[in-house]
Amino acid sequence: MTHESFFGLAWPGKQAAAAQATASATWRIIPRRAGGSRTLPEVLHNSLTAGDNLEFLTLLREPWRESVDVIYIDPPYNTGRDFIYKDNYRSRREHNSSDHGRWHAQWLSMMFPRLIVAREFLKPSGFICISIGEDEVANLRKVADEVFGEECFAGQLIWKKAGTGKNDSRYAVVEHEYVLVYAKSVDNPGFNLDRGGVKTTRYNHSDSKGRYSLVRLDSKTLGYLSSLDFPITGPDGKTYWPDQPAGKDKVARWRWGREKVQEHGAELVFRRGFVYTKNYESAGAKPRSILDGARFGVTRTGRKDAEAALGIVGIFEFPKPVGLVKHLIDICGPSDAVVMDFFAGSGTTAQAVVELNAEDGGQRTFHMVQIPQPTDTKSVAYAEGFTTVFDICLARTQSVCANHGVNLDVFDTEPITD
Fold first, then answer.
1. Domain extents for the chain?
2. InterPro entries in the record, alphabetically (predicted)?
């Protein structure tokens, strides 16, 4: 954990919350199937566990240390409409309460130890992606800066969650949510290319290596360096210099040094009085921070994804779209990524992993945890026989896995009494 004691976000109960991250597990994991051969989930097998996620993380801290490529979580947003974890009970936030600090503190104390322990699961090349709304995004970013290091902040992505916004806002109509992304290490090489990304560059030239665009070798914006202001002789015998702005000098310079020009001179293109380099078309585009469009889906898409998998309408209120989670997993991990989600909800992450593997032949595995939170007795879910959110998650995950011929290990948790 990277932080200084004199700077950061403080709240009542922070020290006690941090202490939970070092506590020993008081529950154990058991296979749901009688006679199951594995007593703990393994990263090589898809798994779903019913239980408190902090207990799960604490128990698997050592056996799974630095084994996970991508963590995606969609925690409670603390809006007043969802529950707030506090150990093993939940409380409701009063809409008209003026004591906002208490509700922020309670939510932060729930998130803080889970993020601390989660970081230990990530490989040095790993990422964590956290969906969050307006109510806690500022606080979460400060806490995540403290846990993962501000230098490991990889982006605050904006997901357009609705095609049309509701007009019940006091100020602006809110049509978006966020995904905070942090790398485990500053040495992380970065995101994978977005295979479905939109390219704005025109690759209107080609050679034996493929299509390419031309990029000027001289630059007026990188800052002048005399060592990069030198003559280059073209194949026609003409001498080329960085093109200086009219009436000025010592502004433009080459992007390459003398040695690189000599070594890679055959890659230069001399055209219309300028020197260019070849920018070859890649297999994808660099990921963008705004996630807007059909491939990422909207809230309505997420509901339809869950309903299609379960064959029941109105079963889950705000699941994330499968397309959104697929995108995050794809840009953050390899094709054999170990993916964890310890706020599993309706099981969107499992469906994203299974579908992504089916599309690209990958061998990713998913590992999800969901507390058996009771469903509302007046809800469609309860009427359909789903008495807990875990029951919904299990049914959806089993359906998706069965449709794709994928195995699933299911686990329960129980208190340690001996």
1. 58-197+286-362, 205-280
2. DNA_methylase_N4/N6, DNA_methylase_N6_adenine_CS, N4/N6-MTase_EcoPI_Mod-like, SAM-dependent_MTases_sf
Helices marked H in 267-321 — which ranges? 299-310
- CA-CA distance, 219 to 292, in Å (whole number)? 33
pLDDT reported for residue 145: 97
**Alpha-carbon span 170 to 104, nearest angstrom:** 21
> Structure tokens of 110?
């729930």
Are the CB atoms for 331 and 69 separated by under 8 Å? no
Cβ 400 vs Cβ 351: under 8 Å = yes
Q: Domain spanning 58-197+286-362: which CATH class is it, in words?
A: alpha beta
Token duo for residue 232: 């280059």
Section 351-379 average pLDDT: 96
Q: How far is Cα 127 from Cα 380, in angstroms, rounded to an integer?
A: 35
Alpha carbons 321 and 306: distance in angstroms, whole number: 9
Query: Whole-model pTM above 0.70?
Result: yes
Task: Specify the amino acid at residue 314.
Answer: G
pLDDT tens profile 161-191: 986 656 666 788 889 999 999 999 999 989 9
Between CA 286 and CA 183 the distance in angstroms is 17
165-168 long-range CB contacts below 8 Å, 24 or more apart? Answer: none
201 CB-near residues (< 8 Å, 6+ apart) = 213, 279, 281
Query: Which element (helix H / strand E) includes 338?
Result: strand 338-341
Angle at 275 (CA atoms; ends 269, 276), nearest 5 degrees: 60
